[in-house]
């Protein structure tokens, strides 16, 4: 007898299943939340490759459920499948965590361990995906239908709770905990690994309470065999048979009419699924492209709270928990009062439109974000900006062009980098500078695709120049970059927060270093020969690159802060509308799609349609992989492309939905029962006729 939770009809075993699902989802989404930044920051991959690998992994996670369903239904059963594949899952997490430890091997070793870990995780999470929820449903007796329905609601809540907490916590473990001299990815992956171990232990702990159904054979294999036989039989036959109006009817020689009719019903729904991967292509970019976008935005909410770029994904899980009851209890009833027939397919079309609007919003945000980015110079060119440290205006001329038409004032913050043509991989350029009516030359060697700052200063001999190579790429974590240019003869030592800078004397520049985003009103300054009291640098903001020029004014060192690369001035709050639109689209598309798949499938074909639904997610990630690696578009153009594609697909899906006729599988079951009874009567009549004929023959003999 099944043990019940005290005073209810809920089996005690579901407590272990719900806790297992919470821990497993924490494990999966926690690891995935920091995955893109791990590729970019730790492995050093470019954003396109990082996006492609992220979506290849996501796609694999949704291809493997078919394998898990085959193993569970045909051989091991759900319980053993969950146990064995959870062990594979844990091993994958451990391997992934070890690959994030800098002291373990070289970069190639880290890549190999990371890829092996991700493959094992994909087989683990995908393999148990079709088993856990179904195993939970198996725990209920047939008469406890309402309790089973409430269990699935609790189960869904545990998924979102695990997702919400993990996308908040793991980015904190990554960024706020420092290990091995940088962000602690080993810990950010290690904690999800520990949660997966807990998930496995909790599930095993309830083994004595579970109701286990033996493997019943996989209907998916039977469907594939029936389709294969029909195609083969039709191919071999050269004659047209008017009784066989559908190509599946050619399987009637071996398979029952009921199975053939059920497959026809399923295929009609699967045809509707063909446009659906495009929705998932947009939806799953929250963890890749949208996270990379957030990295180039202002992440500060006031002076105390700074959100991390990979934490924004938690908005989706949070909004799901808010939107589901709002849509069910408020929006759908209000739309119904307007006498609008809100069918499942209409909801799904609306959800697709909302997702397209979300990417339209992401495009507008990206256009503003790009304005703060300095694009590298193309081949055969370099970037150049000029600083004037002479006490008066200077005019600068470069041969063959007029990059700086206006005079440059003393300590004037350069407005932007100019592109200097080199006509090759490198070139020695003679630059003319005019100061107080006197013209001199500055000759420097420039290399293509490099950014430079050229500092002019006056001496008794005239105008001199110093060339410094610049860092224009924003820091992956949004930290500001800082360097100092020292006009004094003596070296100066400075301490900015926890970072130390040594700036040689006599017009020298220090290397760029990252510092935390903060106000710096009292930077420690030490000089051997001059007064060097604490310096006020003010706010060093997200993503900016600064050059601080140290001059002597009234025997005191004075800092002049210049902004080489603009700070991230687009606030992260501008991402909220795109998350709201996408989550609203998910509620209308994803949840409705699951319900539609369930309602339109015969009882023994529901797993087939669920497998088809999961495959749409997998193919959606394949689309992103192809576009990320093959299109080579600017990010805002890529967002606009996805928005346009989904709008086009939603129109196609609307036409397909218009011609779709809803069915009631329960009514079909009754028809099948009648047909089955009629077939039995016909068979019995034929048997009786044969027996009567045989008796007649015996009498005549």
UniProtKB/TrEMBL annotation:
An example Gene Ontology biological process: protein transport
GO cellular component, one term: membrane
Superkingdom of origin organism: Eukaryota
Primary location group: membrane
Pfam families referenced in this protein's UniProt entry, alphabetically: PTR2
Localization per record: Membrane
PROSITE patterns xrefs: PTR2_1, PTR2_2
A GO term for molecular function: symporter activity
Topology of the protein relative to the lipid bilayer: Multi-pass membrane protein
Residues annotated as transmembrane: 26-45, 51-71, 83-105, 111-132, 153-173, 185-210, 265-283, 314-335, 347-365, 608-627, 639-660
Chain spans, region Disordered: 674-701
Keyword tags: Membrane, Peptide transport, Protein transport, Symport, Transmembrane, Transmembrane helix, Transport
Assigned protein family: Belongs to the major facilitator superfamily. Proton-dependent oligopeptide transporter (POT/PTR) (TC 2.A.17) family.
Stored PANTHER family: OLIGOPEPTIDE TRANSPORTER-RELATED
Protein name as catalogued: Solute carrier family 15 member 2
């Amino acid at each position: 007898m099944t043990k019940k939770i005290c005073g209810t009809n809920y089996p005690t075993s579901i407590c272990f299943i719900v806790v297992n699902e919470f821990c497993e989802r924490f494990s999966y989404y926690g690891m995935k939340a920091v995955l893109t930044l791990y590729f970019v920051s730790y492995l050093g991959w470019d954003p396109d490759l990082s996006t492609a690998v992220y979506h290849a992994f996501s796609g694999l996670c949704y291809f493997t459920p078919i394998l898990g369903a085959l193993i569970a239904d045909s051989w091991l059963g759900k319980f053993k499948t969950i146990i064995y594949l959870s062990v594979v899952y844990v091993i994958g997490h451990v391997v992934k965590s070890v690959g994030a430890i800098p002291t373990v091997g070289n970069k190639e070793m880290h890549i190999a361990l990371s890829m092996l870990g991700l493959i094992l995780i994909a087989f683990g999470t995908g393999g148990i995906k079709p088993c856990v929820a179904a195993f939970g449903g198996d725990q209920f007796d047939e008469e406890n239908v309402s309790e089973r329905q409430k269990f699935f609601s609790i189960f869904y809540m545990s998924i979102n709770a695990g997702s919400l907490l993990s996308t908040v916590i793991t980015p904190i473990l990554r960024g706020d905990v420092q290990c091995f001299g940088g962000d602690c990815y080993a810990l950010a992956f290690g904690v999800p690994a520990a949660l997966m171990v807990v998930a496995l232990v909790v599930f095993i702990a309830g083994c004595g309470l579970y109701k286990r159904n033996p493997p019943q054979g996989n209907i998916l294999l039977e469907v594939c065999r029936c389709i294969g036989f029909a195609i083969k039989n039709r191919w071999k036959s050269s004659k047209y048979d008017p009784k066989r109006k559908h190509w599946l009817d050619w399987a009637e020689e071996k398979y029952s009419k009921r199975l053939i009719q059920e497959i026809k019903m399923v295929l009609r729904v699967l045809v509707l699924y063909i446009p659906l991967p495009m929705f998932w292509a947009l939806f799953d970019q929250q963890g890749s492209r949208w996270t990379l976008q957030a990295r180039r935005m202002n992440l500060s909410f006031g002076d105390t709270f700074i959100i991390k770029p990979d934490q924004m994904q938690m908005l989706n899980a949070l909004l799901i928990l808010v939107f589901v009851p709002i849509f069910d209890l408020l929006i759908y009833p209000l739309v119904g009062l307007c006498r609008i027939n809100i069918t499942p397919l209409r909801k799904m079309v609306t959800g697709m439109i909302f997702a397209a609007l979300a990417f339209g919003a992401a495009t507008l945000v990206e256009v503003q974000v790009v304005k703060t980015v300095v694009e590298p110079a193309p081949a055969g060119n370099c970037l150049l900006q000029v600083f004037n440290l002479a006490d008066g205006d200077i005019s600068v001329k470069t041969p063959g062009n007029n990059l700086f038409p206006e005079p440059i004032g003393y300590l004037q913050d350069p407005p932007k980098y100019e592109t200097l043509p080199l006509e090759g991989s490198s070139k020695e350029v003679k630059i003319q500078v005019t100061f107080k009516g006197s013209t001199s030359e500055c000759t420097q060697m420039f290399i293509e695709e490099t950014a430079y700052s050229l500092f002019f200063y006056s001496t008794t001999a005239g105008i001199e120049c110093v060339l410094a190579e610049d860092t224009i790429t924003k820091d992956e974590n949004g930290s500001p970059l800082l360097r100092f240019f020292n006009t004094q003869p003596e070296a100066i030592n400075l301490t900015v927060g926890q970072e130390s800078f040594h700036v040689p004397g006599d017009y020298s520049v220090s290397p760029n270093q990252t510092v935390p985003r903060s106000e710096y009103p009292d930077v420690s300054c030490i000089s051997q020969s001059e007064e060097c009291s604490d310096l006020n640098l003010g706010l060093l903001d997200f993503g900016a690159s600064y050059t601080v020029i140290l001059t002597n004014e009234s025997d005191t060192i004075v800092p002049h802060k210049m902004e080489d690369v603009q700070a991230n001035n687009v606030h992260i709050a501008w991402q909220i509308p795109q998350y709201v639109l996408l989550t609203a689209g998910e509620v209308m598309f994803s949840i409705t799609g699951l319900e539609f798949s369930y309602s339109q499938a015969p009882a023994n074909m529901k797993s087939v349609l669920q497998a088809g639904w999961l495959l749409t997610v997998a193919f959606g990630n394949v689309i992103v992989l192809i576009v990320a690696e093959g299109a080579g578009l600017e990010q805002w153009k890529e967002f606009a492309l996805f928005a346009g594609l989904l709008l086009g697909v939603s129109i196609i899906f609307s036409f397909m939905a218009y011609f779709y006729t809803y069915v009631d599988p329960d009514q079909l079951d009754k028809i099948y029962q009648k047909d089955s009874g009629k077939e039995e009567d016909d068979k019995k009549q034929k048997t009786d006729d044969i027996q009567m004929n045989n008796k007649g023959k015996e009498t005549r003999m």
